[in-house]
Design goal:
Blueprint (H helix, E strand, L loop, with lengths): L7 E3 L5 E3 L1 H4 L2 E5 L2 E4 L11 H21 L9 E2 L3 E2 L2 E2 L3 E2 L7
Antiparallel strand pairs: 1-2, 3-4, 5-8, 6-7
């Protein structure tokens, strides 16, 4: 990466970084709209296990809300397709009497 020395800074570990306050970047947002980056913050990325857990939580929450509204059968009545041990599992929807 090439950084002009006028906008270069150093991280606490001594790495060369872009000083956002000196650089004052803008971003095209679409159409004739642009934005300025005025604040920088750090946000750590979740690992794959944390992401899987969060997706399961959101799916369960959405299914419960949809069931309350009568939009979907309960979550036990739907087997979701997913890949397990490199084997494809097909989605199965069960009727209200429990049969497929």
């Amino acid at each position: 990466m090439h950084v002009h020395e006028a906008v270069a800074g150093k991280s606490p570990s001594g790495k060369v970084i872009v000083d956002i306050d000196k650089y004052e970047p803008i971003a095209r947002l679409g159409g004739n709209f642009y934005g300025r980056i005025k604040e920088v913050f750090e946000l750590s990325r979740p690992n794959s296990e944390q992401m899987r857990h969060r997706v399961e939580q959101l799916h369960t929450q959405a299914s419960k809300e949809a069931s309350k509204e009568g939009a979907l059968p309960s979550t036990d009545s739907i087997a979701l397709s997913r890949q397990d041990d490199n084997k494809e599992v097909s989605p199965v929807t069960r009727n209200s009497n429990g049969t497929a």
